[in-house]
From TrEMBL:
This is Thioredoxin F-type, chloroplastic-like. Belongs to the thioredoxin family. Plant F-type subfamily. The gene is LOC101511948. Pfam families: Thioredoxin. Keywords: Disulfide bond. PROSITE patterns: THIOREDOXIN_1 (PS00194), THIOREDOXIN_2 (PS51352). InterPro entries: Thioredoxin-like_sf, Thioredoxin_CS, Thioredoxin_domain. The keyword Secreted does not apply. Residues 56-180 form the Thioredoxin domain.
Amino acid sequence: MTLNLCTSPKLVGTAFFDSSSSSKLSIGSSSSFSSPILSSKNVGLRSLSLRKSGNVNLSVRSSLETAGPTVTVGQVTEVNKDTFWPIVNAAGDKTVVLDMFTQWCGPCKVIAPKFKELSEKYLDVVFLKLDCNQDNKPLAKELGLKVVPTFKILKDSKVVKEVTGAKYDDLVAAINTVRSS
């Protein structure tokens, strides 16, 4: 089985999955490694469950799913009006946290590094950011944006919590509440 593998923004390659071992990947055709990076595989080529190992962030998609947007575990993914709903729908029952910001917003700039840290901490949560510029105005309006920053927390493609303003503690509490539900 061949999978597209992205281990970092600098390295994109093809991985060959050894179906006899759920934790062995061959990158390209020469090097291979066995490690606990893969925690399970989902039969049917839909996905592989991943966890972070060391400083390596992995995003694995089967060759059947290469069209469309991708999300990398442990990172914030920038979305737009065209990519937001496909990513949210693909997340299924995972918690999705959306940072709705603008380039000119001071509090947005202050909380952005903390939001990135949360994406590195909560590897079971999908972290997205949406620049609420003119191009994305229809999506911002659809999601009910009134102030920036606003954080929308979704589960099963529905908004279940909202945090307005750069309130880090409130955001962490909301994420933990939704994750445990």
